[in-house]
Recover the amino acids of this structure.
């Protein structure tokens, strides 16, 4: 897989456990602007290649590569059980995010970045009719996709049922829900937050499987928030409540 863009590349290179196969730099890039990246690559014994800008655009399948990319091993999805087991080792309440057919790679990337920054345990996405992890998602996540466990499942509702059997409560984001997220006590439960599709919101069966539905108060004229912004607000509110409870 190719990850491109200066900041995503720096993030990937900073994680020594990641298998980076090669750093690709445009011949037009000024060496002083990528000198730190070249230094890190050489320290790690990673091959550095200089390519014509057209070749870099062709390899990254984007003209937004900012003159630099890295080639890494293909992204490895995890099993839901792996995410749960790793979360349990932390000794804290579970917090994972379920994406109900998010289609925009930019939204997926932004949510991955938020999950990493706020310390949630992972993400579950469906295999069909949804954005998957691609170079564009890696760019949008600013490299965070290399650090966030992501599982892909055939059926979201089935996955939700299995989570509930393990004591996980399902919290759905629904703008029509009467109870705002800020009024819900969210610090004592193992939680999976469900964010709906950009246009349709939560699917009917997914909504019915939720234990709680919460909304984000709308105090302005615009009718709704971007999916990634909604995810960020709700995840932050859960983290805020938990930190307040523990006194951190």
């Amino acid at each position: 897989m190719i990850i491109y863009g200066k900041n995503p590349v720096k993030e990937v290179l900073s994680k020594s456990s990641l298998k980076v196969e090669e750093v690709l730099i445009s011949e037009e890039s000024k060496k002083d602007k990528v000198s730190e990246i070249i230094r890190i690559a050489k320290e790690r014994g990673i091959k550095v290649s200089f390519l014509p800008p057209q070749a870099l655009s062709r390899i990254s399948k984007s003209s937004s590569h900012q003159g630099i990319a890295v080639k890494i091993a293909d992204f490895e999805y995890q099993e839901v059980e792996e995410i749960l087991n790793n979360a349990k080792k932390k000794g804290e309440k579970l917090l994972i995010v379920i994406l109900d057919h998010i289609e925009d790679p930019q939204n997926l990337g932004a949510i991955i970045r938020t999950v990493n920054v706020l310390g949630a345990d992972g993400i579950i996405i469906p295999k069909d009719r949804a954005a998957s992890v691609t170079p564009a998602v890696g760019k949008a996540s600013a490299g965070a996709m290399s650090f966030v466990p992501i599982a892909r499942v055939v059926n979201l509702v089935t996955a939700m049922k299995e989570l509930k059997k393990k004591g996980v409560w399902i919290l759905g984001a629904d703008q029509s829900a009467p109870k705002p997220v800020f009024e819900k006590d969210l610090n004592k439960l193992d939680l999976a937050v469900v964010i709906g599709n950009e246009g349709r919101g939560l699917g009917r069966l997914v909504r019915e499987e939720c234990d709680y539905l919460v909304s984000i108060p709308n105090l302005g004229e615009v009718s709704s928030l971007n999916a990634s912004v909604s995810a960020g607000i709700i995840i932050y509110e859960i983290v805020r409540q938990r930190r307040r409870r523990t006194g951190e």
The first strand starts at residue 2 and ends at 4. Residues 227-246 form the longest helix (20 residues).
